[in-house]
Amino acid sequence: MRPTVARLGKHFGNLGKTYGEYRFALAANEQQAWKGFFDQAFVRVFKQYVWRDWFYYVPPAVSAYLVYDWAKKANAAANRKNPADYANDV
């Protein structure tokens, strides 16, 4: 049985070497987390959700507004007093 590296008494960080792996990192002050957010985010969201999927929410929104407008006008007409009922009042 081959003895493992852990049995040879090495610490956990020195268990083995990896060849052919390269790691790159930027310092915290060199990163630009918000780069292009304010000038590209609106355009990207508009293209992905509004331009491509407009038929999912524009017709229901228009129909809901028309129903709302009709109901508001019908309610106002139903609650309006008839002036002919009060023509003979003194």
From TrEMBL:
<dbReference type="GO" id="GO:0045275">
    <property type="term" value="C:respiratory chain complex III"/>
</dbReference>
<dbReference type="GO" id="GO:0006122">
    <property type="term" value="P:mitochondrial electron transport, ubiquinol to cytochrome c"/>
</dbReference>
<keyword id="KW-0472">Membrane</keyword>
<dbReference type="InterPro" id="IPR004205">
    <property type="entry name" value="Cyt_bc1_su8"/>
</dbReference>
<protein>
    <recommendedName>
        <fullName>Cytochrome b-c1 complex subunit 8</fullName>
    </recommendedName>
</protein>
<dbReference type="InterPro" id="IPR036642">
    <property type="entry name" value="Cyt_bc1_su8_sf"/>
</dbReference>
<keyword id="KW-0812">Transmembrane</keyword>
<comment type="subunit">
    <text>Component of the ubiquinol-cytochrome c oxidoreductase (cytochrome b-c1 complex, complex III, CIII), a multisubunit enzyme composed of 11 subunits. The complex is composed of 3 respiratory subunits cytochrome b, cytochrome c1 and Rieske protein UQCRFS1, 2 core protein subunits UQCRC1/QCR1 and UQCRC2/QCR2, and 6 low-molecular weight protein subunits UQCRH/QCR6, UQCRB/QCR7, UQCRQ/QCR8, UQCR10/QCR9, UQCR11/QCR10 and subunit 9, the cleavage product of Rieske protein UQCRFS1.</text>
</comment>
<keyword id="KW-0999">Mitochondrion inner membrane</keyword>
<keyword id="KW-0813">Transport</keyword>
<keyword id="KW-1133">Transmembrane helix</keyword>
<keyword id="KW-0249">Electron transport</keyword>
<keyword id="KW-0496">Mitochondrion</keyword>
<dbReference type="GO" id="GO:0005743">
    <property type="term" value="C:mitochondrial inner membrane"/>
</dbReference>
<comment type="function">
    <text>Component of the ubiquinol-cytochrome c oxidoreductase, a multisubunit transmembrane complex that is part of the mitochondrial electron transport chain which drives oxidative phosphorylation. The complex plays an important role in the uptake of multiple carbon sources present in different host niches.</text>
</comment>
<keyword id="KW-0679">Respiratory chain</keyword>
<dbReference type="Pfam" id="PF02939">
    <property type="entry name" value="UcrQ"/>
</dbReference>
<comment type="similarity">
    <text>Belongs to the UQCRQ/QCR8 family.</text>
</comment>
